[in-house]
Amino acid sequence: MVFQSKGEKMDKENLRKRLLKKTKQQIDENLSLKEVQIIRAIRLFDDLEEINNLMKENLSEWEKRAPEEKEQKMISTLSTNQNAIEEEKKELTTFITEELSAELPTFTLIATPLIGARLLAEAGSKRKLAFCPSSTMQVLGAEKALFSHIKKKTSCPKHGHIFNHPFLQRLPKPKRGKAARILAGKLSIAARMDYFGKTLDKELLKEVETKIKKL
Questions:
Q1: Which tens digit of pLDDT belongs to each residue from 26-35?
Q2: Is 118:39 a contact under the CB 8 Å cutoff?
Q3: Which of 123, 159, 160, 195 is the right S-S partner for 129, CB 3.0 to 4.6 Å?
Q4: CATH classification for the domain delimited by 31-213, as one of 1.10.246.90, 1.10.260.40, 3.40.50.2000, 3.40.50.620
Q5: Is-contact 138 181, C-beta < 8 A?
């Protein structure tokens, strides 16, 4: 018969509690169906946008070269397909807007739906987004540039997906870095508010607008 000391029993009990806690955290971090669908939708949207941009570029070049009748038919077919992609993008935008607004209302209001969905996809889940510090929120989507900065000592990126936010695009380039910090800070607050169940807060958006206007 093997006897266990009191200390050994306590160690095993502590280990069991830690394992249970870790398992619970892993379960809590599992993505909801809504999160999965939003992430899939934004990734599909971005894929379609990339394909559509390539099609536009090639069609424009082709049309400049005085195509013959056979080529004109092909161009017409491609144009039809391009229009279909545009319609699909509109449907995806509507879906993302509705679903993300239901999941993260204040965050979506400040980030805008497409940028908000990209940030969610980069973070990996609502929970990870909610606990994302503002410094990380600011560069989500700039992982390649950040890796290059660490490995090759290139310039540190000042912003990722939020670079395309209307607030930043209205500003001259020298002021975008500071504006990105302000925006990222408010987005971090909004993500936490939404995650912990607070209702839509439009005042937070006004705070962002006021601070950025002062720049």
A1: 444 567 889 9
A2: no
A3: 123
A4: 1.10.246.90
A5: yes
